[in-house]
Automatic annotation (TrEMBL):
The chain crosses the membrane at residues 22-42, 48-67, 79-97, 103-123, 130-148, 154-174, 186-203, 209-232, 244-264, 270-287. InterPro entries: AA-Vitamin_Transporters (IPR050638), EamA_dom (IPR000620), EmrE-like (IPR037185). This is DMT family transporter. It is found in: Membrane. Belongs to the EamA transporter family. Residues 293-325 are annotated as: Disordered. One of its GO terms (cellular component) is membrane. PANTHER family: EAMA DOMAIN-CONTAINING PROTEIN, INNER MEMBRANE TRANSPORTER. Its main location: membrane. Pfam families: EamA. It is a multi-pass membrane protein. Residues 155-285 form the EamA domain. Keywords: Membrane, Transmembrane, Transmembrane helix.
């Protein structure tokens, strides 16, 4: 598969060509964060683990039907990779939804983003990344008012755990993308995650998982948070450089805060809004620093972030970011 090509570096033609992909990425971000807000409204019906189960099951069914991945011809290492990928996906989703059951959506996404941000900073040896790490830590300090006394500490811990799982998810998404064609690995990993969470969802929600309204809402969460954003970003990454995509994804804590306010009535204080802005700035700065370090000489074909095909990049970013996010 041909790597993602960058638009022209200067001039209006390149800018115009980038408007369409940027719109697709932003539409995907809006979809996933409003899907997350819908999931919060569903939790009184099915509980956090029940919502995760419904979302993973619906997403797995759609991806398996669309991708129709081959089950034969894979090595034991291939299957081991996709199983770890699926377990990580399930853990990431479970931790995130448990966190948004306790703290506001925008703050949960902000804390979750720290996982990929830490991965980006640690993966680069450039000194400038110390600045981005400092900005992020400043944002976390503001977010908790110095001691997080205003937030549920369990919710904070769960969101940070989801961030750690997201960073692990990105690593195994890249490995899975190298071993499986197209989105086959994602479809199989989603099935693993769904099977992993099925007994947990049944234990928490029981027969409520079979309620037609609950099933419909859970399927809507899966479409908004997984299927639709993934499709939009897959189309966008064919014309948008992966580093630009990652910068746009860094804006999702702000989108999550807006979704939390409009759908759930979760308003941020001025201090919390400043904290979100600091984490966003740190994420954008870290991505741009890494992109600059990887930039090739003029005329060279650009390489997607992480050296993987665009589909796994999109999947890794999306399944974690607030959709878990």
């Amino acid at each position: 598969m041909t790597p993602v090509s960058a638009p022209a570096a200067t001039g209006l033609p390149g800018r115009r060509r980038s408007l369409g992909p940027v719109g697709l990425v932003l539409a995907g971000g809006i979809s996933v964060q409003f899907g997350g807000a819908l999931a919060v409204t569903l939790m009184p019906r099915a509980g956090a683990l029940g919502v995760v189960t419904l979302r993973l099951l619906a997403a797995a069914v759609v991806l398996l039907v669309v991708c129709r991945p081959r089950l034969r011809g894979h090595s034991r290492t291939d299957w081991g990779t996709v199983i770890v990928f699926g377990v990580t996906m399930g853990a990431m989703n479970g931790l995130f939804y448990e966190s948004v059951d306790r703290i506001p959506l925008g703050l949960a996404v902000t804390l979750e983003v720290l996982g990929p941000l830490a991965l980006s900073v640690l993966a680069s040896r450039r000194a400038i990344n110390a600045l981005w790490a400092g900005l992020a830590l400043g944002g976390v300090f503001l977010l908790g008012g110095g001691n997080f006394s205003g937030l549920d500490p369990v919710g904070v811990g769960l969101a940070l755990g989801a961030g750690a799982m997201w960073a692990t998810y990105i690593i195994f998404s890249a490995r899975t993308g190298r071993r499986f064609p197209q989105a086959d690995g994602l479809a199989l990993a989603m099935a693993v995650a769904a099977l992993l969470f099925l007994p947990l969802g049944i234990a928490e929600a029981g027969g409520r998982l079979l309620n037609p309204t609950t099933v419909a809402l859970g399927s809507s969460v899966a479409i908004l948070s997984s299927v639709l954003p993934y499709t939009l970003e897959l189309l966008a990454l064919r014309r948008l450089p992966a580093p630009t995509f990652a910068v746009l994804m860094s804006l999702e804590p702000a989108i999550a805060a807006i979704a939390g306010f409009l759908v759930l009535g979760q308003a941020l204080t001025a201090t919390q809004a400043a904290a979100v802005a600091l984490v966003i700035a740190a994420s954008i700065g870290a991505v741009r620093s890494q992109a600059g370090a990887r930039r090739k000489p003029a005329g060279a074909q650009p390489e997607p972030a992480g050296g993987v095909q665009p589909e796994p990049v999109a999947a890794a970013q999306r399944e974690g970011n607030g959709s878990a996010s």
